[in-house]
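Weekend entry, working from home. Most of the wet-lab plans are on hold until the incubator is repaired, so I used the time to fold the two sequences that have been sitting in the queue since the last round of cloning. Logging both here for the record. First:
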Amino acid sequence: MSVETARPETFVVGTAGHIDHGKTSLVRALTGVDLDALPEERQRGITIALGFTSLALPSGRRASFVDVPGHERLVRTMIAGASGIDAVLLCVSAVEGVMPQTREHLDILGLLGVRRGLVVLTMADLVDEEMLELAQEDALDALEGSFLERAPVLISSAETGLGLPGILAAIDALELSPRSLDGPFRLPVDRTFLQRGFGTVVTGTALSGRVQDGEELWLLPSQEKVRVRGIQVHGEKCGESHAGLRTALNLAGVERSELPRGTVLASPGQVPVCSIVDVRYRHLAGAPALESGASVRLLLGTTEVMAVAHGLDGDLVPGQERFVQLRTAEPLACLPGDRFVLRRESPVTTLGGGQVLDPWAPKAKRRGFLEAAEQLRRLAEGERVVLLERAGLAGLSRKEAEDRGLVQGLVLGDRVLAPGAVVELEQALLAELDGFHEQQPLALGAGRRSLRRGRLEALSPAAFDALVGRLTELARVEVEGPRLRRPDWQVRLDSTQQAAFDALLEQLTASRWEGLKAQEIEGVTPLDELLNLAQEWGRVEKAGPRFYASAALEELVAGVRQVLADDGELSPGRFKELSGLARRGAIPLLEWLDAKGVTRRRGDTRVPGAS
């Protein structure tokens, strides 16, 4: 199946780097827009909130700029801005060189999956050539082994304009992977504000899918409905937006207070809200080791929540990858492939990060950690059937399987199951049926619904029926009415049972139309089983509380039909004359004749029935 993609004619570039290393000044020099809009930012000369602007490049492409704060106390804001960017401008001051936040931002960008960018040595007008050369060497050392190891290192000055044309050309020349337009629309909210005459407006970078004006979206994790009543991309009104674009949405039906940072706008019903997430995680080489079960800060998109990190295959060791189950204090919305960062609870430092593997994860028990880790290893290698295996014997609904992009499952009625689960259920049903035959050797088969127990109770009624149908097609089960049996199953009476069966028929035959209640039958063991068998074989029938030999009832039917043919009706007196039965014994047989269609009641008499 082809994947629809967005041509990267428009892309998002984020700034990164230590505080006071000229990120905002560089963006201002490139675009002419000062993103330090808050009075506090202008007064202190640092960026506190995220800033956004865009620029038409020489080729006609357009770059959206996300300017992030560099202060260590605002790293969470930096992560919110960096989520969803296509490339980065890593700014390093030629005056100070590489600093702690430079390295931390570089680590975070790598964890978030950013793979393209430029390195800009800023403030070059403030140093001599020797200092500039030292700063350049310092930057190259810091970049070694990172995703920017081969990136251009450009020299600039926002004050003099040095290097700005080269930076624009390098940005324009970035080779970026196209964004997929498949999947649900998702926009993590990084800003919310009220605009006079419009109401509530949110902004963010669309991660996937597309949205059209007038469309209904959900607020996640609350799952409240809102309607889009206006879209802007790069400050221009549009009829739609899609993955990879900086997008502003005017929303109807929601107040600004209901849209904190961390809210995700998404296509209805297609993005899971979860509090247990299984991930592939890399612990930074310079981060302190953590024991499994430690509390951490989880930053995903624009969301920050506290979580407990359980290492499924060991403690979180510097420089090592682990499969981890994150159990969050608050629900969040995510999909497989989403990038995240973990930071220490206190003191707040970056620990590592990775990629979401299973946002529908079941809670792992400690004794099952290694098994869960093995499942995640397979899932990380592309074995998506693991998601079905984790759904267990109940499987997934067809919509759930579709939302997970699963095509490897087996459909049973209204459920989709892993092939291994279907095999286990087949074995369970056959075991139940074999057990029934063993425990009730005189029964011709088991009631279909009576077998849906134990592990088979996990199946919906429709899925259970489909399982029976599957085994029937495989000739491993035979269906007769409401009963199931093994194809090779036959009731075989031993000599003792045969003698009891013959004694039962003799007593009922002798009783003729009087019949016998069960408690009146003597010397027959096991009575209930043999009575049921005799009925299944058509040798005995029950009318009211009494049992009769089928041959006797056939004789009665022949006599009744003769009377109806001669007289046109059957009166109570005529039936008493025919059968010799008093009223108490006659009523069950008359009702039996009606039920069989031999007669039909009309007033106090019977007339010919339908059969």
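Second, folded right after the first finished:
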Amino acid sequence: MAYQAFYRVYRPQSFSEMTGQVHVKQTLQNALLYNKTTHAYLFSGPRGTGKTSAAKIFAKALNCERAPVSEPCNECSSCLSIMEGSNTDVIEFDAASNSRVEEMREIIEKVRFSPANSRFKIYIIDEVHMLSNSAFNALLKTLEEPPEHVVFILATTEPHKLPLTIISRCQRFDFKSHTQADIVLRMVEVLNDANIPYNEQVLKIIAQAAAGGMRDALSLLDQVVSFSGDKMTIEDALLVTGSISQDMFYSIAEALLAKDIGQALTLLEQLVRDGKDPVRLVEDFITFFRDLLLIQTAPDLHDMLELASHEPRFEELAKRFEPATLYLWIDIMTKTQQEMRFSNHTKIYMETALLKMVQAETPVLATTSAAAAASPELEAKVSTLEQLVRELQQQLKNGGGSAAPAPAEQKKRQRVQSGFKIPTGRIQDVLKNATKPDIQAIKTNWATVMAQLQKSHSALLNEAEPVAASSDAFVLKFKYDIHCQMASENQTFATAFSQLLEQYTGKAYTPVYVPDASWLKIREDFIKSSGLKAGNEEKETDTEEENPFSQEGAAAEEDPFIAEAERLFGKDFVEVHED
């Protein structure tokens, strides 16, 4: 008989031989044992995780002559014929090469015929996501109400491409990628059965290259065994899988740590000349730095090392790194890996990543300096607060709170500490020309404008409220002085805010900022100087037009959310209830 690859010879023939997927095996076995199987199943998951193998094992158990059983006997004529592929009642259908509706109609026409020699007629449709829309539509009705003797098992690596109408008619089982330990354990079983000596480090290299796929791992193992001959070596495994040796990782990591970029780039050039893929190199470096971080934080978990081997040299190298440096390097490599997907010049991206890693400063210091450079006004505010704390501490030393400064001194000190100057003249101009339609137009569109602003900009307006408006400007009152100052100094915010307001109101209003306490004083002075009366003493006829800003109740009546609701649904359909 011709030579067969490991993944074919050692394909699982029973649920007990399957690696991992405990949740799938237990559910299917219980359904078999208690005769609770259904008419359609969907097996989804990455390649090489056992979907087709599980489908065949399930088919054997359904048609086993000893049924109901949780495991196929693999001895009766039905089990043997399914294993050999000669059972006419178990039909394997490759949707990748038979995706047209004509092939699907041939299956549907034969579904109604009873099985020839078995209890069930089982259709295993592999790569089912490759079917055309017409084929899915043809399968839909049969999949929903097939004859009692038919079972459909659909397998796919891309379940998101299946119509929801198909998925909803199946019991879905999601197969998970195999862990590195599971793959190594299965390869040990295969090599022991084949009487082939092995090196565990070689198997770890193969398992790392397989990326969770058992079939990929057994195929790579087959290649390494064929290449090595009598004895597998680490060098052979590295050559076949395209990985690099641990010594090379040590050399490049030490060069980066010593900021010797020339040595690091020379080693990278040597690896590329040897045929190593830069994309694969980035992935391996991320894993190597992860192993260094693991040994630093949890030395007892050396069994979880994926790429490096647990040895004294590796532990010594890990002690030389700061955790923050490893975090930064992993972040740089991860971003480089994402950028490589869209470029044909992957080597240049790898070289740039090494340069960034060498030139990068300590992450904590870099973050602090960047924050200070990006926000000088924040540094000034911090200095002001520190000065205020020192003054309060000095007052406590001098006898507690008895030496409180006079109100005039407090006001003067606040004005000196704060760089914001109250635009009293501009506010009074707005009040002289204030109209009720203008303030209503702004409040009506306030909630819409807030929703359109950036989160950082809208946060400044959380405690702000428009209180008066003329035809070309409006007064914006802030609850906190610091928010008022930040809004007045942020030109980007002012531009975006004004543009949005003009877009929704149809008029260009210039905002005039004022803190809450200052607004109350300016408003009171203006009312007195204008001969108006505040509160409920004003007349209902002319006063609202002349002094629309003075009523405290107007803010509640013209709440921006209520105004927005009235604009959307009409005043007749909006009713306000007070709690």
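Plan for Monday: verify the second prediction. DSSP finds 30 helices and eight strands in the chain.
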